[in-house]
Amino acid sequence: MPIDSIWSYAPDLSDVQERDLTGYTVVANDGTIGHVDRQADHHGMRHLVVDTGVWVFGRSVLVPVGVVEGIDTGERRIAVSCSRAEVKGAPRFRTDSETMDPAYLGRVGDYYHRLPPRETPTG
What we know:
Layout: E1 25-28, E2 31-42, E3 45-51, E4 60-64, E5 68-72, E6 77-80, H1 84-88, H2 102-113
Parallel strand pairs: 1-6
Antiparallel strand pairs: 1-2, 2-3, 3-4, 5-6
């Protein structure tokens, strides 16, 4: 995956790009991460700020939209292509100003870009 695509929705998700996803539940391949607190697109780096609740000691995490695998608008759920541990291991999100910091966003993008690709089931 090119690094630029980590900040863009997959082409098959183009119909939801402008949808307000606030409040949607974010689910990894091994469980729930939290819910979307807000979404942003600073410096062309579109991402979701996800409130993890008590799972990660009440902190939020930043998730680039390029890891979004699917969005179920009826269930208000977003599936991402990584595990909870991988999300937890991303560069720590501390303040809202970081969502506008190109250096911080670059570190986040690089982290998610370097995650091992998911194997797709064959059948």
